[in-house]
């Protein structure tokens, strides 16, 4: 190599390193600063952020709500991007091993327990049943890998652009209007611009960044797991004592176990999530090893632990309308209803214990998906607007699917009519949902 070329290459290398963030002689001294509350911080320098995509609708979060929203938006005619931080769709339903699609049924006003989950969610279950990968008529339990496959197929068929391994990292705002989100991935920091953004993060990350109001609920966090050879337990073994190793799944010999975990946990504290993650994995492994020592259980084994920790609640939107337990117990009819959900567990209403078989189905109004102040943003999934007394049914997978389909359809209609999502024609929204086989109750 010639001396001139060597020097040139060294200069280019040095420039590249400096641009990449290494300290150069011209950089100021690095000194952390102290905030008023005593915490330390640093200031991140401004930099150019490349635009990865411009689209009609951007759905942030590929859980049940996000998939339903993306499929509905794309089928309604909007170009749609779906952003997912993990390597699969389905969120806690698949990656979290929360395998039952809960709240599929509710009590009608005529006293019958009827199926209320239809539309995109009904299509998902129908596909899984056809594959023999869903069991039980009420609140069907699915196989997680089959679920991931079906959801991938549905978004692909709908023409959704899916980005895996990509984290949303901030909202792009123009006064009170959201214009898109910043994203982080192996490709670096980029931006996706959209006419309408749907927050399906489960934790309300996007509406928090955008400056919308919300409440925070601390709740139980766990981590589910599956057990193999569950069908090989020898109940006739001398000294046999029943041990709960979970419930049946579509795969013979494989059971799944729901871990309630620790109560009153902060799901927005990364150190707390890390502590729980490590603890649950250790506890699960050691528990199964102890069960294996029990008479009759020698052949079981830990098949897998959930790839997602079981966060049940965190942020709840303070939206245009807060859905109440009273609404859900009295068959309240909403002019802007986007679907119906059901019940899966006991709850207390007016000092009485109400079982799922006696729990009415309940409508979800579109207004509960609409933020009060931020324009071009909708919210679906467990963080839409409802009161705490309703959280057991509002946070669950069936409800997430209903709110997702409603939000996705509304977003597409807002784009097509060039209106703010809060101003769209509600009757057109409801008719579009009817055309998608969504049910509004008898």
- Topology-level CATH name of the largest domain: FAD/NAD(P)-binding domain
Specify the number of helices. 10
Low-confidence stretches: 1-23
What would you report as the Rg, rounded to the nearest angstrom? 24 Å
CATH class call of the largest domain: Alpha Beta
CATH superfamily of the largest domain: FAD/NAD(P)-binding domain
Number of strands: 26
Query: Which class best fits the helix and strand makeup?
Result: alpha+beta
Number of domains: 2
The general outline is globular
Mean residue pLDDT: 94
- Would you identify the CATH architecture of the largest domain? 3-Layer(bba) Sandwich
Amount of helix: 25-40%
What profile does the largest beta sheet have? 7 strands, mixed
| Beta-strand content estimate | 15-25%
Terminal Cα separation, in Å? 82 Å
Overview of this protein structure:
Helices cover 28% and strands 25% of the residues. The chain has 2 domains: 50-217 and 314-435, FAD/NAD(P)-binding domain, CATH 3.50.50; 219-311, no CATH class. Helix 2 packs parallel to helix 4 and helix 2 runs parallel beside helix 9 (397-417). It has 442 residues and is α+β, with helices and mostly antiparallel strands. It is built from 10 helices and 26 strands. The chain has helices at residues 3-19, 64-75, 119-130, 144-158, 205-210, 270-292, 325-329, 391-394, 397-417, 426-435; strands spanning 33-34, 40-41, 50-60, 80-83, 105-107, 113-115, 134-135, 141-142, 161-163, 167-174, 177-185, 188-199, 214-216, 219-222, 225-228, 247-248, 255-257, 262-265, 301-305, 310-311, 315-317, 337-341, 347-349, 352-354, 362-365, 377-379. The chain is globular and about 70 Å long. The strands form 9 sheets. Strands 3, 4, 9, 10, 11, 12 and 26 form a 7-stranded mixed sheet that branches. The protein has a 4-stranded antiparallel sheet with strand order 16-17-15-19, with helices on one face. The longest helix is centred in the middle third of the chain and has 23 residues, at 270-292. Strand 11 (177-185) and strand 12 form a beta hairpin. Residues 1-23 have low confidence and may be disordered.
